[in-house]
Design goal:
This protein is an alpha/beta fold and 189 residues long. It contains 8 helices and 7 strands. Strands 3-2-1-4-5-7-6 form a 7-stranded mixed sheet, sandwiched between helices. Helix 4 links the parallel strand 1 and strand 2.
């Protein structure tokens, strides 16, 4: 746990715009996001930017035995860490961009995602990349799939509303920093 926090903090110092926070998510934030998932129907779950695996560990605990979790991470230090920390056969770590989610799922033979979870800092990335990731996410979701987003700012809300048919908003104050939560349902924008 201390090693994980150190790795996370060290990478925050190196890439602050990539992580958005110096500390991993609180258990309150994790619960606030994951309570939106109907675990009995979650066969393919994708996590963008898993970092040291704070959400990953909880997702794996709650997933069914026949479900799969695909983590997409751009930071090579985190990819290496995750591969060693979670030897679960249901778990796949991919060193790539979330903008390529559909190709990644196709390569793994999984088809559409039931849920995609993201804490990547949309507000600090270039607008073109943000739009590319959101469009790719929409396309990679099953027709009844959902995109679960947690952010430290509500600035991504208009972009989410342009791409997804329905966006529900919530707030989790018991996190450092307090977080905005968005539950987005796929549909024609």
């Amino acid at each position: 746990m201390v090693k994980d926090r150190y790795l996370f903090f060290r990478n925050f110092i190196r890439h602050p715009r990539m992580l958005g926070s110096a500390i991993p998510s609180s258990r309150f934030l994790i619960e606030g996001v994951l309570q939106q998932i109907a675990w009995h129907r979650a066969r393919v779950v994708v996590e963008y930017g898993p970092g040291v695996g704070t959400f990953t560990a909880e997702i794996l605990k709650r997933m069914g035995h026949d479900a799969r979790l695909v983590a997409i991470e751009t930071n090579p230090d985190f990819v290496e860490h995750l591969r060693g920390a979670f030897p679960d056969p249901r778990f796949h770590v991919v060193h790539d961009s979330a903008a390529h989610v559909a190709a990644i799922l196709a390569r793994l033979g999984y088809g559409d995602a039931d849920y995609i979870i993201s804490g990547i800092p949309f507000s600090t990335m270039p607008a073109e990349l943000r739009q590319s990731i959101l469009a790719a996410t929409h396309e990679a979701l099953a027709p009844d799939g959902a995109f679960l987003v947690y952010q430290f700012s509500a600035r991504v809300l208009p972009d989410l509303q342009r791409v997804f048919r329905y966006v529900q908003r919530d707030f989790e104050p018991l996190n450092i920093l307090p977080a905005q939560l968005f539950f987005c349902v796929r549909g024609t924008a």
